[in-house]
Amino acid sequence: MNKLHLLGRLMAADFLERVRRHSFLITLGFAVFAAVMFLPPNPSKYATLNLGGHRGIYNSAWVGALVALLTVIFLSLAGFYLVKNAIERDRRTGVGQILAATPMRGPAYLLGKLASNFAVLAAMVGVLAVAAGVMQVVRGEDPRIDPWALLSPFVCVTLPCMAVVAALAVCFEVAPGLQGSLGNLVYFILWNVGLSTTVMQPGAALDFMGGHVIFTQMQAACAQAFPTYAVGGPMTMGFNIKAKGVWDLQTFVWSGAVWTPPALAARAAWVAFAIGLTLAVAPLFDRFDPRTPGAAKAPGAARAARRARRLAAMPDPPPASAQAPAAPGALPRLEGTRGRMRLGGLVLAELRVMLNGTSRWWMLVALGLAIASLFVPLFVVRQFLAPFALVWPVLRWSPMGAREREHRTEALLFSTPRPIARLLVAQWLAGAAVALAAASGAIVRLAVTGEWTGLAALVVGVGFVPSLALALGTWAGTAKLFEVLFLMLWYAGPMNRIPPLDFVGATQPQAGSGPVVTFLLLTVSLLALAVAGRRRRLAR
C-alpha cells in the first residue's frame, strides 16, 4: 500500500468517524442557524454589514460574500474546538500505538490529520453555502441563483481560512502544554487578537479573512450608486443591534468580487502556509511514544505523575492483621474517618481540587483585578475589570461536572450518600465561591456607589457562570464545551456590549433589568439541567 493511499484511507476513516458525532451535528445546527441570522430583512433591529447606511441587495454575489465572511468569523473559532481532538483520541483509544507500529512517518500522519480536519470544516462550509442559497430565495430580493457568484467567496475566502484553522488544531495537539484547556484559552486569545488585526490589515497579501478584495469592491459599488458615500467610508460588520428604532438601509446592486491572479495567489499562499505549519511541528510529534525526550504529553499526564509521586511517598498502610475484621461482603471501615462529612467540608474539598495546581502569578492577577476595581473609575470597572475578573478563572470552572468522568471516579463518588443533594451542591458552591472572590472588588465598588442594577447583574453572573459550567460538564462529560460556549458568550456579551448576552452588567444601566431577570432564570434552569444530568448518569 503506497503512502498516498494510506494517507487517504486515514483521512477518510477519521472524517467519517467525526461527522457521525453529536458535537458535529450540534455545531452544524448552530452554523445553519447563524447563516439564517446573517441575512436580516430590511428593515430590521440589527444589521450584519452596513456601509454608512447602505447595503447590497440580496443577490447571489452579496449573499455569498456576506455569509462567507461571517462564516470565517464563526467557524475559525467554533471549528477549531470541534476538530482539536483527533490526535488525543487516537492516543486515548490506543489507535495511535497501532499506527505507530506501521511504516507511516510522523509528518504523513500529521498531514492526514490536517486533511481530515479540513474535510470536516469544508463539509460544514458546503452546508452553509447551500443554506445561503436557500436564504437568498427566502428573502426574495433577487431570487435568481448565480452559482459562481454565490460559491466563489466560499472557495476563495472561507476554505483557505479553514485550512489554517485545521493546521492550528494539529499544532496545538502536538505542541507541549497546548493540548488541554490552556491551549483552548490561548487559541481564543489569538483568535481575538488575530481577527481584530486582519480586519484592519490594508494589504491583501496579509489578509487572513480575504475581506480586503471584497470590501474595497463593495465600497466602490456603493460610492457609485450613492455619491455621498466615499470609498473607505464608514463600514461595520457583525451583529450591530440598534438601541432605538430599526435599521432601514438603502440598497444597491453589487455584481460580485473580481478575483485577480495576485489576489488568488494570496489566498493559495494561506493553504501552503497551513501545510508548511503542519510539517514544521512534525519534529515535536512523539509518535505516541511517551518515552521520547521532549515529547508532548497527554493532557493531565503531568498532574497524574505528581499524584503518583505523592502516593509513593506516603507511608505504607498497616498490615491486614492489624485491622479489624470486616463482615463478609462489606468494605473495611477506615480508622479515623467520620461516618458522614459536613457540607462545609465537601465545599472546602471541592475548592482544593478546583484550585489545585494554581500558580502564584494567577492568584496575583486575580487579586490585582479585585484591588484595582476599588479605585479606578466606575465605567472601567463595569466595562473592563468586572468582565475580565469573571473570565480569568475559566480554567478553574471548566472541569466542573466532567471531572468525575474524565478521571473515572464516578463509581467511587456516586456511591457516597446523596451524591446529588451533597456532591452536586458542593461543586456549585465551590464554583460560586471562586466567582465571588474574583468579582469581589467590583461587587464592593458597585455596592458602595449605589449601582444597584449593575450590582444585581454582577451577582447573578456570579451564580450563572458555575451553573453553566456544571450543567454543560454534567451532560457533555468534557470541559471543552463550556470553554467554547462561555468564551463566545463572554466575547459577544460583555466585551461587545450586546445587552441580551451581557451576564456581567457591562451594558448597565442602559440595558435595564431585562438581562438580569433573563440570566437569573437561566441560572435556575441550568441548575435543574445539571441535576437531571447527574440523575441520568446515576441511572446508568
Any overview of this molecule?
The chain is mainly α and 540 residues long. It folds into 2 domains: 282 residues, no CATH class; 197 residues, no CATH class. It is 64% helix and 3% strand. It contains 22 helices and 4 strands. The strands form 2 sheets. The protein has a two-stranded antiparallel sheet. Helix 6 packs antiparallel against helix 7 and helix 12 crosses helix 18. The chain is globular, with a radius of gyration of 26 Å. About 6% of the residues have low confidence.
Short description, anyone?
The protein has 540 residues and is mainly alpha-helical.
Write the layout of secondary structure elements.
Blueprint: H1 3-19, H2 22-37, E1 46-50, E2 54-56, H3 60-83, H4 86-93, H5 95-100, H6 106-139, H7 147-174, H8 181-199, H9 211-225, E3 236-241, E4 250-252, H10 261-280, H11 301-313, H12 343-354, H13 360-372, H14 378-389, H15 394-397, H16 403-406, H17 410-413, H18 419-438, H19 440-449, H20 452-476, H21 480-495, H22 514-539
Parallel strand pairs: 2-4
Antiparallel strand pairs: 1-3
Helix pairs in contact: 1-6, 2-3, 2-6, 3-6, 3-7, 3-8, 6-7, 7-10, 8-21, 12-18, 13-14, 14-19, 18-20, 19-20, 20-21, 20-22
